[in-house]
Write a structure and sequence with these properties.
Elements: E1 6-9, E2 12-15, H1 16-30, H2 34-42, H3 45-57, E3 77-81, H4 87-95, E4 101-106, H5 109-122, E5 128-132, E6 145-151, H6 160-170, E7 171-182, H7 190-210, H8 213-225, H9 229-238, E8 242-249, E9 254-260
Parallel strand pairs: 3-4, 3-6, 4-5, 6-7
Antiparallel strand pairs: 1-2, 7-9, 8-9
Helix pairs in contact: 1-8, 2-7, 3-4, 7-8
Bound molecules: S-adenosylmethionine.
Amino acid sequence: MAGREDTHFGEKTVPLADKQGLVDDVFHSVARRYDLMNDLMSGGLHRAWKDALVTAVNPPPKGRPGRLHEKTGKPFALLDLAGGTGDVAFRVVEAGGAGTRVTVCDINADMLAVGRERARERGHDEAVSFEQGNAEELPYPDRSFDCVTIAFGIRNVPRIERALAEAHRVLRIGGRFLCLEFSSVTVPGVDALYELYSFNVIPRIGQAITGDREAYQYLVESIRKFPKPPAFAKMIEAAGFRRVSFKSMTAGVVALHSGWKL
Ligand SMILES: C[S@@+](CC[C@H](N)C(=O)[O-])C[C@H]1O[C@@H](n2cnc3c(N)ncnc32)[C@H](O)[C@@H]1O
């Protein structure tokens, strides 16, 4: 159709305007079983990847008063974009000292509801707030966070450039953007095994645990469609970030991207 912009939803081509709704359906469907699925699909490895992200965030250490921002005098504030059920947020507040505050922003009310329940159970409802919002159009003022993270979220966002520009806008000068995302396995032999596992095993586990095979078929397809780390690093740079770098982990299964607002 003339003038219609398309994008991909997994292997399917869909109108750009439809992608967010399709992504939302996936996470409505899997929200209750999302964390269990992460453990099952990754054999627990997602915990190590998220720990590497938290190390890079470098929240103010425990046992000391919270680090105050040198200019604003406010405690360390982190925005976890597409933060879903709060996994990254909880790790940051557990690693950080008093005063560490995390805002989880996610578009999906069901993922956020699971996150709020988990925060109450863990006693983190003071330190972590859950807010509904679209990464492409953040409901926060300019320069309001010391760090912005996004874990396994960016590939679900229809207009990635807009989300990167928004992350840059809400960061304070000197703040860091960190993005954990699936990447592409480059080790010969491991790549074929990974492909086999992704396309044959993951959708079956998804079917057994969540009753939604399609959702996990989308997740593995969307990994394949996501730009390779050097291309994604260029997108981060184009959004205005400096000293952009990435580190591949687990034979390239995931990459941790970093950029600074300078
Ligand atoms: C694979 S989950 C990742 C959740 C969490 N970061 C983690 O690592 O466990 C992807 C999340 O991205 C969210 N998401 C998708 N599109 C979004 C958007 N445009 N803005 C904000 N969140 C979005 C989904 O609702 C979902 O919670």
